[in-house]
Structure prediction request, 124 residues.
Amino acid sequence: MAADPSGETCALREVLALIGDKWSAQVLVQLGTGPRRFTELERTIEGISRRMLTLSLRNLERNGLVLRTVYPDSPPRVEYATTPLIEEIIEPLEALADWAKRSRPAVAAARRAYDDRQFAVARQ
Prediction:
């Protein structure tokens, strides 16, 4: 493989690691519609545990993609929002999420067909 003097491959890998894990993209898509409180995010992201949501939000905040704002109410209120850094990719992330919803049945059918072919070959 040829050297990448521009560092584009490394940059792409690094960015995908920031948003490509199981939960981060979903968090960002939810925040793309506006600031949310922790419990709102927890309710709207199916299957995420409190711990994983906390870790995802901390990681996104650490990398400058999410802003955590604490309001001095009693009890304190915390909201999460996207930063300007993420604004450029919110639209593609939302498009990817829409594609995933639409394509889920086709992907499941392709997996079943592949597994059926593999099973048939294994039986021969």
Remarks:
- The first helix runs from residue 8 to 19.
- The mean pLDDT is 89.
- The first strand starts at residue 36 and ends at 37.
